[in-house]
Specification:
This protein has about 230 residues and is an alpha+beta fold. The radius of gyration is 37 Å and the shape is globular. The strands form 2 sheets. Strands 1, 5, 6, 7, 8, 9, 10, 11, 12, 13, 14, 15 and 16 form a 13-stranded antiparallel β-sheet that branches. About 25% of the residues lie in helices and about 35% in strands. The longest helix is centred in the N-terminal third of the chain and has 28 residues. The protein has 2 domains: about 60 residues, no CATH class; about 160 residues, Trefoil (Acidic Fibroblast Growth Factor, subunit A) (Trefoil), CATH 2.80.10. It has 3 helices and 16 strands. A hairpin with an 8-residue loop joins strand 12 and strand 13.
Amino acid sequence: MTISAAETTATSDAYTTTTGTKEADMTTEMITTATSTGQTTTTAAPETETTTDIMTTITSEAETTTAAAEAGPTFRIIASGGSADGAPLQGPDTVEADVVMFNPPASEGFRPRTYILEPNTGRVKDQDNGRYLCGYYQGTDWVQSASIHACTGTPGPNQPVEYLNCEIFEGTLFCTLPQARCDQREIGMDLTCETSGNFIFPYFYLSAPGNQYILIGGTGLNLTPIELIAQEV
C-alpha cells in the first residue's frame, strides 16, 4: 500500500515511534483480519447444509410414516363358522374376474387373496390386482342382502354396487354397507338403486351350503351367519 508524505508526517506527529511503513503494515493486517473474519462468518453455510440435511431426513421419515399409515395392515380373510370354517377367501389372478369365494373348485385357478385395509377410506383392497371388495345388491324393493365380489362398474351411492366400509378390531373384520331400494325395469337390465342413509347391513352370511359366496345383510335372514377373521400376513 502507498502512503503519501502528508499522511506520513501526520502519523509521525501523533505517534512519534510509528513510521508510515509500519502504519501501512498495521493497516494491511487490519484489512487481512477483517477479511479473515468475513471468511469465518461465511462458514455458516455448512450449518445451513446440515440443517437442510436434517429437514430432509425429517421430511423423508414423515413421508415414510404417512405411506405406511395409508397402506394399512396386509391380511387374508378367513371364514369363522358354517361349512367354510377356517377357509381363506379366494379369487383368480385375472383383473377382469370379480368372483371371490371360499372353497372354490380346484379347476377354476383360484388362490387365497391378500388384502390391504385403507385406514383413510375403510376400503378393502386386493394387494396384487388392486381390486376393492364391494357389495352387489340383490333383488328388488328394499333388498335384504348384497353379495360380496371384487368391484366392477362405478361403485357409489345410488348405484347397484357399493364399496364395503370396514375396520379390523381384535383380529376380526367388521364391515357395513348401506341398505338400498332397487328396481329392475326390464328383465336383463341392471338394477336401479337408491341407497339409504339410515340403515346399514352389518352381518356376514354364507349364501348357501356348498355355495360358499359371502353375503352381507341385516338380521333375520335364513342363512348361516359367519365372521371374517383378518389373518395378518
